Amino acid sequence: MDADKSAADQDPLALGAINERRLVAAVLEFLKTKSEKEETPAPVRENLDVARQCLTQAFDLTDDRIEILRPQMSLIDIFASHPDAAPSDPKRVLESELNRTPAATAEAKNKAEEHKNRGNDLMKNGQIDEALQAYSQALTLDPTNPILYCNRAAAYSKLNQHDLAAKDCEIALAFDSTYAKAYGRYGLALHGLGMLKEAKEALEKAVSLDESNQLYKNNLKLVEDAIAGSSGLDQGGAPGGFPGGFPGMGGMPGGLPSGMFDMLQNPDFQSSMMNMMQNPQVQQMISQFSGMFASQMGGGAQGGAPPNLNEMFQGGLQGLSGMTPEQIAAQMQGLFGGGPPPAGGAAAAPDAPGSQLPKGPEDKDKKDPPPPSYFS
Questions:
Q1: 237: CB partners within 8 A, 6+ apart
Q2: CA 367, 370, 375 angle in degrees (round to 5)?
Q3: CA distance 32 to 214
Q4: Strand-pair partners of 242
Q5: pLDDT given at position 126
Q6: Most CB atoms closer than 10 Å: which of 22, 106, 148, 344?
Q7: Please, are residues 301 and 334 in contact by the beta-carbon 8 Å criterion?
Q8: Are the C-beta atoms of residues 160 and 192 closer than 8 Å to each other?
């Protein structure tokens, strides 16, 4: 027996040797799954099959042994979920992959445009899962188009998959660091993840790139209020603000803060808020605020019993998606008081200039994506 052989080679039942075969079995299963996918090109499929044969022979594995040894979770899922699997320098990884991504041909761009337009129509009709699939199909044809990543991010956000939305926005911004809409949707995704500081930075960037866009300004104000409100709750209230730490509320007579009616018409914001409301810490804060509200106000906006904010927000999680923005605004107005938005300050119609996000994603005003530009 060679002296330089490892203990695992000497003892096939050693834990290290078994784990090696389990790892190879997981790799073989991954290669098989990849090879069997319809979108895998024939030349790639042939190379994958050759790789599987070589690994199978090298480790003396059969199909039966592979089935027994492979882990319950797929290798790609293990890799994606394990905290230590993250790259040491994510920025370098992204830049490296971007540099190796080939630009699409004119024919592929045209087909991708068809998938994108179909995805936009599906988004308008509320068929979010189908829209997500359409955008993904477009990206397989035109993987360097930041608009496609940004549109898919909007679909992910509608499904409360804010982590995936944030990743798509990061890729879009890696291709075009001046893409204001990507920064805007990045801010909403980060807000949905509870990353308020990072959401504020992203929305500030969106505003700096498109100063005329009222949506970005309104969302930024909302995030700033959320940051200040969180700080106020920790301190037992915000001076000069609404009891319990809602700066800018100005007490009951002032009604809702500026821009709140606009915020309520933003579908991405509603999705982010519903996701954030599932956070146990947020629920606990609302419960505490509800108690402070009842003790300090002693009655509702119209002199009745003080509202139970915890029940209202929890019920809102189920009822929000079925209510119109006007109904939501009426609920909020009834809770906090104040009149309707003044003339000229009401939320604009979905297709009006300066309105909230339209029913479906819009294209950025450019024909072709610019050359890659990375995070500064």
A1: 243, 244, 245, 292
A2: 140
A3: 50
A4: 246
A5: 94
A6: 148
A7: yes
A8: yes
pLDDT at 110 > cutoff 90:
yes
Give CA–CA dist 196/182, Å, rounded: 17
With b for 16 or more beta-carbon neighbours within 10 A and e for fewer, the 256-276 pattern comes to bbebbbbbbbbbbbbbbbbbb
Q: What are the C-alpha distances in Å from 63 to residues 12, 57, 69, 225?
A: 19, 11, 10, 59
Dist. CA 248–CA 257, nearest whole Å: 6
pLDDT-derived band at 90 (thresholds 50, 70, 90) equals: confident
What does the DSSP assignment read for 21-46? HHHHHHHHHHHHHHHH-TTS-HHHHH
- Sign for the CA dihedral angle at 60, 64, 68, 73 comes to positive
Helices 280-297 and 309-319, interaxial angle, to 10°? 130
Report which residue type is found at 21: R
For residue range 333-347, what is the model confidence (pLDDT) as tens digits? 444 444 444 433 333
